[in-house]
Amino acid sequence: MTLKKSITIAIDGPAGSGKSTIAKILANKYKMTYLDTGAMYRMVTYYFLENQINLKEKINILEILKNIHVDIVGDKFYINGKDVSEEIRTPKVTGLVSEVAAIKEVREKLVELQREISKGKKTILDGRDIGTVVFPKADLKIYLIASPEERARRRVEDYKNKGIENENFQDVLDAIIKRDFLDSTREESPLKKANDAIEIDSSKMNAQEVCDIISKYIDEIEV
Ligand code: DC
Asked: pLDDT-based confidence at 3, cuts 50/70/90?
C-alpha cells in the first residue's frame, strides 16, 4: 500500500470518543505522522497553571504565548525543554483546558504550528476543528462520536491505567458533559462536524472495528 506523498487525515470528535487510540493505530498502519492537537492545548494549559496565570484577570495573552516553546518528539511533549507528557493528562489540566482552548490567540498560534508540522507529510491529526478550520481540504475527514456514558467509562479506565484511582464515574461524566458544552458552544472554532466528514459512532465498537471502517476510506484515497 503506497499513499500519496503528502496526505492529511482529520479525526474530530468530542472528548473520549476514541480519536487518539484510533489515530495512533492508523498512523502506525499507514506510516503516517500522528499529531495529537488536544495535547497542544493541554500543554498551554499546563503552562498557565504552572505560572499561576489567572484567566479571569486582564492578561496579555500574546506576551505570554511568546514565552511558550512547544516541542513534540514522537509521543513526548515538551514545554521550554521540559517533558510534560504525563502532567498534561491530569484532571487539573483537563478541568481547565476547554477555557484555554477557547482563547482566540492560543488557537491561532497552535493552528499555525499544526499546519507547519503537517506540511508536506502524511499526517493524521485528531482534535475538534481539524476538518473545519485547520485542514478544511483534508483528504479524509472522520467525525468520531460515542455516548457520554461510554466516553466517561473509557476515561475512568484510562485514569485507572495511569494509576489515578480517585476519579469516580459520575464526576468524569459531569466533566465530559461540561467539556462537550464548552467545546461546541465557544465562538472560536467550535467542535462541529464538517459537512463532508464521515460520522462514526464508536459506542458499541472496539478500536479495531473502527479502524477497519476508516481503513476502507483511506485505501480509497490512494495514489
Ligand atoms: O482531545 P483532548 O481531550 O486532549 O483535548 C483537550 C481540549 O483541547 C478539549 O477540551 C478541546 C481542546 N481542543 C480544541 O479546542 N481543538 C483541538 N483541535 C483539540 C483540542
From this structure: low
